[in-house]
Write a structure and sequence with these properties.
By secondary structure, the chain is an alpha/beta fold. It contains seven helices and eleven strands. Helix content is 28%, strand content 24%. The chain has a seven-stranded mixed β-sheet, sandwiched between helices.
Length: 240
């Protein structure tokens, strides 16, 4: 059973993120060294995700030359660039519903040498919860991606609502199903969150998924319990 969603917040609105990335884009234009915020950098989450995929590639049936990656809500694209730097050479796509984030990622990628050629990382404007399917978009491989990445996007989606009054519902209720359609059968979703515990994430991603791994972060103790400020869980898509 999924946990109750947190109260809605400005961080769950498109306006917040377009404003944030418009600021980063303007700053980057004046100072190319400014590439915006890499979320969860304080926990070295990106390094840990890359290290996890490196260490478990065989068990997850991943191929450094062929496995395809999709980063949902990729922001400045830093996680995909880290994977490229780490030797993953398959097709990579980052999507974000904020056009400003996509433009920033494209510019940063060009500066890193990933704007074209065999090592190109592609970035597109697309909303995973927007209702328009990825099929036929030109960037989604038939059958889905080998690895789908989510580093904070589910957190933001969980803070969003649609509708009003008695018909208002949390957008996150449809997230697991929307993401599942993007992962090939047997492929994996690596989801990183600062709002949900591992147990809560398991509740949201139940039917059609199985947990195949987790990433460890420094723990803390509070009230006699132990926890992590960040949770990263690896889910495999099962069934058809």
């Amino acid at each position: 059973m999924s946990a109750p969603a947190p109260p809605s917040s400005e961080l769950g609105t498109k306006n917040y993120w377009t404003t944030t990335y418009a600021h980063d884009l303007a700053h980057h234009a004046h100072d190319p060294a400014h590439t915006g915020t890499s979320w969860f950098s304080d926990t070295r989450a990106e390094d840990k995700i890359v290290a996890y995929l490196d260490a478990h590639a065989a068990a997850l049936n991943l191929d450094a030359d062929a496995t395809t990656f999709l980063d949902l809500g990729m922001g400045n694209g830093s996680l995909l660039f880290a994977l490229r730097d780490g030797g993953w050479r398959g097709g990579m796509v980052g999507v974000d519903y904020a056009a400003e984030a996509v433009e920033l990622a494209r510019r940063v990628g060009t500066g890193k040498g990933y704007g074209d050629g065999e090592g190109k990382v592609r970035f597109e404007v697309w909303d995973v919860m927007g209702g328009e399917g990825a099929e036929g978009q030109g960037w989604c491989p038939e059958g889905g991606f080998g690895v789908v990445l989510d580093k904070g996007t589910f957190d933001a989606v969980a803070l969003s609502v649609e509708g009003g009054g008695v018909e208002q519902r949390r957008v996150c209720e449809g997230y697991a199903g929307a993401v599942r359609r993007l992962v090939r059968v047997g492929g994996v979703l690596v989801l990183t969150s600062c709002n949900w515990t591992e147990g809560e994430l398991r509740g949201w991603f139940g039917e059609g998924w199985e947990v195949v791994g987790r990433i460890r972060y420094p723990t803390f103790r509070f009230g006699g319990g132990e926890g992590q400020s960040v949770s990263s869980v690896c889910f495999r898509r099962v069934g058809e």
